[in-house]
Amino acid sequence: MAPVFRQFLPVLSLACVFMLFSDPAHALRCGSRLVKDGMHESRVIELCGQPVSRRHLGYVLRPYILKRPAGILGTHYTRHVYSGFHQELPVTELVFNFGPRKLMRILRFEGGQLTLIRTAGYGYHEKNR
């Protein structure tokens, strides 16, 4: 091994370990709790509180995928099988305001499952009602 490579090997190894334990880029923190793709809408509201805005965007057509056991009894793996059918899923968009010093987040749900997390501009102080 080249001496230069040996010098950077510990640093490179440490960087790889940190990348393994970092949050995914498509995740959101609500306080100390993590919200990520695939979570149900009710669970996200439970973790983050009520959104400031909720819009129904329409419907999306997705293939209906069956999950079946993949192998011998005792294995926990599943295989996904396309059934030939489609399902119509409602699309909802929730906007969360975390205050004026943090970015607002727009969460898109298809069929109640979180599919997309985007950032909006900075939040704002909500007036007392």
Molecular structure report:
With 129 residues, this protein is an alpha+beta fold. The chain is 20% helix and 48% strand. It has one domain. It contains two helices and six strands; from the N terminus they run αββαββββ. Strand 3 and strand 4 (78-96) form a beta hairpin. The N and C termini lie far apart (68 Å).
What structural category do the secondary elements indicate?
alpha+beta
The number of strands is 6
Question: Quick one: overall form?
Answer: flat
Low-confidence stretches: none
How large a portion of the residues is in β-strands, by DSSP E? over 45%
Give the C-alpha Rg. 21 Å
Largest sheet features = 4 strands, antiparallel
Could you write a compact summary of the structure shown?
The protein has 129 residues and is of the alpha+beta class. The chain is built from two helices and six strands. The chain has one domain.
